[in-house]
Specification:
Two copies of one chain form a homodimer. By secondary structure, the first copy, chain A, is an alpha/beta fold. Chain A has 16 helices and 18 strands. Chain A has helices at 7-14, 29-40, 84-94, 112-128, 167-178, 198-207, 224-237, 249-259, 266-275, 284-296, 312-323, 334-344, 365-377, 397-415, 435-447, 456-474; strands at residues 19-22, 46-49, 55-56, 59-60, 74-77, 98-101, 131-133, 139-141, 160-164, 184-189, 213-218, 240-244, 279-281, 305-310, 356-358, 383-388, 422-426, 452-453. In chain A, a hairpin with a 2-residue loop joins strand 3 and strand 4 (59-60).
Amino acid sequence: MTAVGSFEELDRAMTPASLAIAGVGQTGMGRLFLSRVVQYGFKGPVYPLHPAGGEALGLKVYPNVNDVPGPVDYVVSCVSAPRVPQLIVDCATKGVRAVCVFTAGYSETGTAEGRQLEEDLVRLARATGVRVIGPNCMGVFCPKAGLSVASDAPREQGRVGLICQSGGNAMYLIRAAGDRGIRFSKAVSYGNACDLDETELLEYFTQDGETDMVAAYVEGVKDGRRFLGAVKRLAAEKPFVVLKGGHTAAGTGAAASHTGALAGSDSVWDSLLEQIGAIRVHTLDEMVDMMVTFQFMPVPGGRRLVVFGVGGGATVLTTDDCSALGFTFPPLPADVRQELHEAVGGDAGNILGNPVDIPPMVGTNEGYQRLLRRMLGWDGVDLLLYQLPFRGIMLKVPLAHMIFGSQMANVVRVAGEGIKPVAVVIHYLATGEGWREASTYVRQAWESGLPAYYSAASAARAIDRLLRYHERMRTGPPSPDG
Amino acid sequence: MTAVGSFEELDRAMTPASLAIAGVGQTGMGRLFLSRVVQYGFKGPVYPLHPAGGEALGLKVYPNVNDVPGPVDYVVSCVSAPRVPQLIVDCATKGVRAVCVFTAGYSETGTAEGRQLEEDLVRLARATGVRVIGPNCMGVFCPKAGLSVASDAPREQGRVGLICQSGGNAMYLIRAAGDRGIRFSKAVSYGNACDLDETELLEYFTQDGETDMVAAYVEGVKDGRRFLGAVKRLAAEKPFVVLKGGHTAAGTGAAASHTGALAGSDSVWDSLLEQIGAIRVHTLDEMVDMMVTFQFMPVPGGRRLVVFGVGGGATVLTTDDCSALGFTFPPLPADVRQELHEAVGGDAGNILGNPVDIPPMVGTNEGYQRLLRRMLGWDGVDLLLYQLPFRGIMLKVPLAHMIFGSQMANVVRVAGEGIKPVAVVIHYLATGEGWREASTYVRQAWESGLPAYYSAASAARAIDRLLRYHERMRTGPPSPDG
């Protein structure tokens, strides 16, 4: 039976005003943890702990958390597993309410010893009232508090909440989503979930007024019924995207060995999660696509799509990818086509019906913008996908960059007028030496509030999920009590 | 009825020793084409053509191809469509055997006028014996001849042949595959295929001694029976990978408008192509994955896989991805596990059975290499997948780069001993500012003869296709006459 904390109790751990790190020696993980947290810029006092005392990175090292002069909201354990119980007891004495046990060596080892250590840890947490995050995890990422174990994570606070059983996957998601404009309210890597578990975390994010959307990477669930109840309540309030790690038999074994998780059968997960309004994805990058879509994509009125951009072959493949997911391509009316012909010039080799394949260089910026307005303003269309196959033209990077830069500026400008939703696709994997230039378009897109994707297939899949989500919500959101 | 050229005739067009470009004015596509070709470094003489004569990029401009002093193997038409017939006639007089009609404005426009122009062009080609590549295409890419319309394309000759109905997709493939170590014998963007078509090109590559593997991006096929016969003969000799553009109804429409192609029904393609030994892929990046796999991956003896690398969560997802495609994860024997424990240290948080999740920093290089040799040498395994989730750890780019650099060096060294096949996965999309560093691992992999992939899912899919290909070939390759 898991303890259930109040929202306020958890919120103090999620946005701590003071922090201690146990196990800060001259080298090792405690030291590394400290340097990352300091570099990222924790906003309150940071207290390194080590029996030897002394100094670390110019900070006084305290032998024990009870030697710390001020209050401590959050403690990170980088001591070895056998030393963790005394740390918990000390924390209880100090009045610390939450300890992130970065320390590994528990049930994930698959040994009797590891399981026993974890059982003891849970018993101690219950007895002392100290909440344990982990063990075997990186704990809380909270830009508002200045708390991050990755010093290069984005510093701005956002409105996406993340729970992630794997610390590495959390780092990947924070960086990959960060590159596409996603900022987090809080993200929690929660490892073996021996005390604070996935269900309680979802309940926290359901209540959290700083979070508009929640994503979860979950390898196993301790109590399926409680978890599904929490998902149901969350999904009724906020978009909830979930990736199940260990969904194959072999993956289940790996998950057990990674975080000691008991993963459920795949088909059960699939049907239950969809039924109660969760959006299930299958890769970390699909998860980022959904964050981007919920954050930056206004809900299109339907699936009538105009594909617009450079490259005939890219256009054909994009049409295939979008069509396979139910998007339709209404032929542009004669007057819009006429305008297109005038803007593009009589020169052919371009697909001007819909999809629209234009040459890299097109007339004036004014003409280009007028065209976009005409297409978006036509009442036969619900959304526009602009694609930029940066390395799919004969030009070298600098010239391509100049040309596409002015195209992007036009797209961003007209999209900002809010006539209809616009998605941007930067075909990414062939960017090669043009990667830096291509990534400026991704940044330009999200800084202007537009969703940017790396392929048409991923854009289509994400927008399809957005549409299906809103269709479900319209026909009646899942009742939190049903 | 299409003319069928001899191998020698086509080979002269594919590896021209001399080149003329028609329509080289002071600006425009002819000028651009010329500058690209000169920058890339065409190995024979280049003759710009324009009625006004003069000079272009320091080269004498000839009013007519018949004014050129020496022989001309290959002519690129950048003149407008109405001027193309006279160019063809002039070429016939000159003895030019192949003209790449870059010019667009033909059947892809969907207009009666465009169709008429294309019919006239075919009739003229037949009457004069001049072979036409295109229209509406970029033509031949041949590193051996120094012929490329993209001056930044790789300069080395390789042994992969490519036919690509779309010029933009050809550029994308040449660059994306180039980043992963693929070099081409010849690649042909063949556009509307009014004369030289997909079938004849496949027959050329079947015979070409400089080509070991062939990839094709095809939007439509002029004569299905001839095409399937050519595929059958090709697939009996060399691996053949095909991507069908316009495989949905909407995509078919786009393809018609892009290259005037009449695309066939998807299900027919699928079953016929698989039956006769072709490997069908669904994206350009999957196509590159197959090139990489055929070029760099020795055929594993089976599907018994060891996954080895950093990151518990990455390992769980990789296991899911590989397991879903039929790969199995035999538990490492006790003695190998013992060696792993010794190398990694007693520290847990790592999955040491199989998949193997190791910490970023692992003991000595000698110990690391010994471990790899033990795993590869164990007779219960067929291949090893090493994964590097570069941005999935808490470290910043420079430190991660230092650590992973030494891991990669160990992997490359042991893989080079050829004990068992090794694949490298560089999780790519979250590389963000570490992109440049991550790409050095990709280069290091292929320069050492290892296949490098951007995700575990794409690696598993490609290696699965390789295995199925060889299973089919073992049970009897398709008879070229059957």
